Amino acid sequence: DLTPPWPKQTVRDAVLVHARLDLHSCQTLSAFSDQAGRQGYEVRADDTWDDLFHRIFVQTVEPALPSDRPVFLTEYPAQLPSLARYVSEDIRYVERFELYIGGLELANAFSELNDPAEQRRRFEADRVRKQKAEGYTGGIDEALLAALEYGMPPSGGIALGLDRLMMIYSD
Fold first, then answer.
1. 13-48: b or e for each residue (b if 16 or more CB lie within 10 Å)?
2. How far is CA 120 from CA 6, 41, 45, in A?
3. Residue 75 zone, left/alpha/beta (φ > 0; ψ -120 to 50; rest)
4. What global pTM score does this model have?
5. Would you write out the chain's pLDDT as a tens digit for each of its 171 residues?
6. 111, 115, 80: which is closest to 97 by C-alpha?
7. Does residue 12 contact residue 93 with C-beta atoms inside 8 Å?
8. Phi, psi angle pair for 79, to nearest 5°
9. Which residues pair with 72 in a beta bridge?
């Protein structure tokens, strides 16, 4: 049923309802692991925040999404790697949404982060994480940071899965 309006739900609310975890109190990996373990979710010693989130999300939230109509999931946790701006009212989340139709993720979109200092901080944190996890020896995208220093107006982008759209319409 593609009749508008399509429902929206924050990721925090979806995780709270379907996984019984409150992302507000899962800001660190330790807190997230403790809460997830108490709820009976698999927690691995080598999990990153991202790993644990996606495992729980795929197991609990995605299967619970409506299969008969589209739904937007909004405001993703800021801990997930992203080039998205923070939600102005709550920097624990970023301005990102995903569109699910028939239980399948069809589109992923976000408001571009255009703060060069914040982007540098995120790049540095991501580089450190990659160094620890994979022995990454690369740098950060200085060209993008220079462009942000020059000035970038508010913008956003969306990735639409045409293959997924065809899957939905061809059943």
1. ebbeebbebebeebeebeebbebbeeeebebeeebe
2. 36, 34, 29
3. left
4. 0.88
5. 889 999 999 999 999 999 999 999 999 999 999 999 999 999 999 999 999 999 999 999 999 999 889 999 999 999 987 789 999 999 999 999 999 998 889 999 999 999 999 999 999 988 888 888 888 888 899 999 999 999 888 899 999 989 988 988 888
6. 111
7. yes
8. -70, -20
9. 8, 99
